[in-house]
Amino acid sequence: MTQQHVDGILNYGGTMTVHDSAVGSNAKVVRGAAVPRDRAAERAQVGVITILPLETQAVRLALGLRSERVGDLTFYRAVVNGVSVAATMALEQGQRSAMAAYANLVGAFDPEITVLAGIGGGIHESVAIGDVILATEMVYYDLRKVTPTGTPRRGQTRPVPAAVGHAINAFLTDLDPPRRLTIADPEGTSRSLMVHAGPIGSGEAVIADEDAAEIAFLASFNDKILAVDMEAGGLGQACHERSAASGRQHRWMVVRGISDRADRNKSDTPQRVAAWHAAQVLRLLLPYFETKR
């Protein structure tokens, strides 16, 4: 076989791949910023958003999550009961920060369902401190019209996706006794609680007054509203709009441990127990979200 010496590129009809190369006299390669690694293989089935540090601590401990840095953000990850989970904590309380946390979670792990997990205020007589609420519908109460004669509110409702509703029903059906759980805290103390499914109210207010106009409005809008929070409206709206942009449904749900009655006796003392109960119920729910990709 005759050998040839060539300065440049020699190809006899085969295929080749050239990376980071230049051709020609005095050619140079100028490399730009590194391309982020492909995270497609790391997609999570379930994403979790928490708001307060104590909520994040409860979820991390209950699910056995480990921290992972992605750029300037911290996420928490694990495979729990065969379900891949990625969690993040919002920068602060409120609808806008919850939407930003969701965008961060989608950008890094693109979960099939995103769960808002933490504490909330119970406003229905059937709900006790320490109980857990699984939201089947969100009522956003902060839409209103300011007029010279008053400020009427305009509630906006958004049900959870049907698949999430079916998962909640299946979970509740499997509970024995019905809708009741006994959960031990990390110190070993066991507590009995009820798991409720129903609508929740969401807005920008921290409510600590049973006579607040927000409570009265929610009771008149739907007398079955169980609890209130400050972030569910943002998550529901973000998932709704993301579904239109991506061409597939982005599912969401809310798990709230009841830490107070949204009244003047509101206290921080029960928050840690309520957050733990929510995290444990989330752990039990995970197998009901498992899907085949």
UniProtKB/TrEMBL annotation:
SUPFAM superfamilies: Purine and uridine phosphorylases (SSF53167). Residues 48-285 form the Nucleoside phosphorylase domain. Pfam families: PNP_UDP_1. InterPro entries: Nucleoside_phosphorylase_d, Nucleoside_phosphorylase_sf. Coiled coil: none annotated. This is Nucleoside phosphorylase domain-containing protein.
